[in-house]
Request: fold
Amino acid sequence: MRPLVLVHGFMGGSAQWELQSPLGWDRAVHAVDLPGFGENAQMAPVSTIAGFAAWVLEETARLGLERFDLLGHSMGGMIVQEMVRQAPERVVKLVLYGTGAIGVLPGRFEPIETSMERARKDGAAATARRIAATWFLQKEAAAEYPACADIAEKSALAAILSGLRAMQVWSGVEHLPSISAETLVLWGDGDRTYPWSQTERLWRTIPGAQLAVVPGCAHAVHMERPAVFNLLVEEFLARG
Reply:
C-alpha cells in the first residue's frame, strides 16, 4: 500500500491524529508537524501557504516518499492543494478535509483580522484554547477538546500570526480544475470555520471529486467521530 501523509491545520500538530492509528494497519502513515506548530513549535514560522507546501514536499523527500496519498485538514487542506500544484506527479489520492479553496472565509466564526488582533491582546495560550473550542460541536465540553487545546497551546504567537497571514492572502480557486489526483472532499455538517459553500466549491470544481458529509460534527470530525472518519478515509484510499 502507498504511504499516507497527514498535514494538520492551523495550531495543530502530529499528535492530533492519534485516533487515526487504525489507518496504519496496512500502510505507513506519516503525520508532519508544520514549522512553528506541534513538535516543531521551536522552528521559525512560515508565512505563506506555498512555503508550507514546499516544506512538506521537502520533508516527504527526506523520508524517502516519492509517491503517496495525501490528507490535509483546514489550513493543511490549503497546503495540500498547493502541494498538488507544485508536484502533481507525487500525489496519487487526495483527501481535502474541513477546508476550502480560499483563505479569507465568508462566514468564518470571526474575521482573520479579528483573530490577529485578539491573539496579540490575549496571548498565544488563551488564543489557542479559545479557537480550539470552535472546532467542536460541543465546544469546551467535547471529550477531545482538552487534548486538542493542549496541542494548540504549543504554538508560539509568531506562528499564530504567520499562519493567519498565510491564509489571509491565499487562494487556490483557479487551480482546482487542474487537480488530477483522485479526490475525496470530507466535511462535518456543523463546521463553524468552513461553510458548505466552500466544501461544495471543492466538490463541484475538482474533476471527479467525491463527497462525504458527516452529520453531528464540527471542524474536528477526526476527533469527534473517529470511527466514521477512519472508515471513510480507508474505503476511499483502498478503492481501485
